[in-house]
Amino acid sequence: MKLFFPSFFLIIMMYSCKDNGNTINDLDGNTESVRLIQKAKDIHKRVITLDTHCDIDIKNFTDSVNYTQNLESQVNLPKMKAGGLDVAWFVVYTGQDTLIHEGFENAYNKAMAKFNAIHKLVEDIAPDEIELALNSDDVKRITKSGKKVAMIGIENGYPVGNDLTNVEKFYNLGARYMSLSHNGHSQLSDSNTGEIDGLWLHNGLSDLGKEVIKEMNRLGMMIDVSHPSKEAIKQMIQLSKAPIIASHSSARALCDHSRNLDDEQLQWFKENGGVIQTVAFQAYVNKEKNDTRNEALKPIYETIAKSLGNRWLEREEIKALPDEEQEAYYNLRAKVKRLADEKAKTIKDFPPKVNVSDFVDHIDYLVEKIGVDYVGISSDFDGGGGVEGWSDASETFNVTLELVKRGYTEEEIAKLWSGNLLRVLDEVQTIAQTLRK
User: I need a labelling partner for 426 at 20 to 30 A (CA). Which of 56, 223, 290, 415 fits?
Assistant: First the structure.
């Protein structure tokens, strides 16, 4: 059974009761039926809520500091329980580096550390609270038992190196999707970042990347196209014998970013039978609104950073720092941003944050363009994701509430939250069984 009392009571606190409790008024003055909120609450309890992209920090998977505690991380067990998030797809992410043996080896070791951290959580730290799922039947069984569900995806095929057998190693450790690149061209695939300078390494997929696609089909691992280039995505769809996914992407027509999918690509997904997991990442949801707010926040960031004895750095400047300094600075950056957000609340007419409504606008657009059967939901929590109203897993109910407000049925909401993604996983695994025969 899901518990999400903090989120529900937060919503109630945002409204003032009128008409003997039959309606409530929100801060914008719009009336909203109490019955509508109760309806959303009931639906949220019944459907399986699944987020396909949650990054992790292995420092939060130790005996003393872990996801049984309500850490500052956007995802952990207390927040999942509070928000009624059933399934967190934990991501084995490695950044892009040089395409040489040392780079591959380093990435492989980092990937294995994250695999080990996830297994430590479900096997040693909290086996009574969360369990690893490998297929849709596992998801349904574990959810029914009352435990939370962990699943594993790989963001960036870089740690595969030049060794195709690593794909099966990762699959055997529980990975059920993988993207072939991240921000920067990998040995397997061009990245969307090539749009910046028009420079491509493979003009889509490398020969090894094509072999990896075949191997993923054979094993039953979903192909994730959220970071590769448009040409690479096209080639993956042409090569794959199974449906594909975009684990965390939104609609380019609403937000012109190379990480989002244009209308032509949306049709590819529909024809392929795949699913696009709409992502609650501010810069991919509404870049103009996000940029306006960030510009207004910049002098506040600089002032707060200076007061903490440091200097405010942009992301490109941070990437130029040594690895150990990057990590320390990202921790400082998170603190500065939290303090700046608090300061912004005291400033009249300060540019607003990208919010849940903006996020669901993308779901609406995708559903209108290709149909409700090909759309899902993701956050990119702890990897830069989150919008006002869904800033961490404890606020997951707010997404369901917004969908109910817009007239989505329980059946449609169930598809968006998990049904479509699990349908693709089933198809991928069924096709793999055929291929192995």
Answer: 56
